[in-house]
TrEMBL record:
Entry coiled-coil feature ranges: none
Keywords associated with the record: FAD, Flavoprotein, Hydrolase, Oxidoreductase, Quinone, Transit peptide
Protein name: Beta-lactamase hydrolase-like protein
Highest taxon, organism lineage: Bacteria
Gene Ontology MF, one: hydrolase activity
GO biological process: sulfide oxidation, using sulfide:quinone oxidoreductase
Organism: Tropicibacter naphthalenivorans
PANTHER family attached to this UniProt entry: SULFIDE:QUINONE OXIDOREDUCTASE, SULFIDE:QUINONE OXIDOREDUCTASE, MITOCHONDRIAL
Keyword Flavoprotein tagged: yes
EC number(s) from the headed UniProt entry: 3.-.-.-
Cofactor: FAD
UniProt enzyme class: hydrolase
Amino acid sequence: MEFKKINDDITVSPQITAEHIAEIKAAGFRSIICNRPDGEGADQPTFEEIHAAAKAAGLDARYQPVVGGKVSDADADAFGAMLRELPGPVFAYCRTGTRSATLWSLSQAKDKSPAEILEATKAAGYDMAGVVRRIVNGGKTPTDEGDAKFDIVIVGGGAAGISVASSLMTRKAGLNIAILDPADIHYYQPGWTMVGGGVFEAETTARTMASLIPKGVHWIKSAVAAFEPQNNAVILDGCRVVKYDRLIVCPGLKLNWGAVDGLVETLGKNGVTSNYRFDLAPYTWELVSKMTQGKAIFTQPPMPIKCAGAPQKAMYLSGDHWYREGVLKNIDIQFMNAGGVLFGVKDYVPALEKYVEKYDASLNFFHNLIAVDGPAKKATFKVAKPDTEATEITVDFDMMHVCPPQTAPDFIRVSPLADAAGWIDVDQSTLRHKTYDNVWSLGDVMNAPNAKTAAAARMQAPVVAENVVADINGGAPVAVYNGYGSCPLTVERGKIVLAEFGYGGTLLPSFPKWFIDGTKPTRAAWLLKEQILPPIYWKAMLRGREWMATPEKVSAE
């Protein structure tokens, strides 16, 4: 028999027999629910047989027959009531387990998020796509879908979403486009490193979303709950349904602060900060500017993360400030990296290592932050070096800059659009979905093996726009993405190592070496980051002006 655990309270299963009762009891279950009507199959034992065996074993058993494909709202309510009444954990079964999983999903919809329900059932081996609208609607059958319909729906109003909307509008007038995003404020996230280094003011990195939505594009201020790609539909919170001819998915990443025990409670105090949050980047500078002695820890979680260089950028700018203030000799800098290398593209490592040496920073590889005790100023790391048994160490700190673990958003990970690891599954060249040919993705949420940076999104937006318009016109993809990403590594105030690379670590410099040699720290790269890139972001990238972002064309071969 199969035990398909949904959570600690309930496990579901295909059809059982009386002989399985002893095994169910031995597994610790105290109650059984049968959701399969008697007589549905010729080889099926009756509930009376199951009930007699359960009673003899001291288990409570209930009969709630539900016809396949016809789970009513009342059925779900009744199932939920049983779960509350029966001693747990509960074992439920039907022919395949699907009806029991569906009943559980609908019965929990008022108390759990759609993503939580879909993730639990998916892990147990059950696809709840057929009832996703009811789950989003609190477990009840929607009476009015309130459909809106657009030529193109874009999920996410960040750098990728607004850029691709603008790029589409410049290529094909008259498109009916909607951007779905609940946020009021749009942030220039690459600027937060500079805020944490005392270079930018936080306010310069934020603008209202309404001021940035391209003219003629509809903004639906709502979060996405689920996708129905088979119906060309996106389900919003509240169970509103938005239909599309073509879908572009780019909601960014989820910063999983809760994955580190104790971190949420201490962020913004006790010397714990992060440039990965708008409201915390100023606290980084406050800590750095006031620190004259002690231990400063900078953490980096396992990949993938947005802007893989950002954790060490914070370290370099902090070290530079302490160097200039003459207090560096009193400060112990520790870089705790869950990975095994300083930077993923080896050509840039020598220049970075010179700054590690300049700031006398200790590099600790394979150290992954798992817990923080803010008041005690202690951080615990899991140390998992290759070919050695994992251990844990606890380190004191006076200041700690944390880069949080990162995943795709919950509603993406549980969707039919995601690969096994939870990322949107695209062709890495055309950025078209591998299964649904009217779906594209760009930005941090898709699974192409490129660096997750704003510079990558700047290159991807024209590629997606070109290919979507080609599809509208009845053609094949015309543009390809080469994996370009850029990471301006702020190694000191006034100098940057401008890392630019594509798939496989291929160097893809934008400028001649005499102007900017990306493998060396340069003043020109700093000026680019400080003075040129912010206006390019606000006034060009988000407005469909593709400066130095012309897409490569598909080979004619």
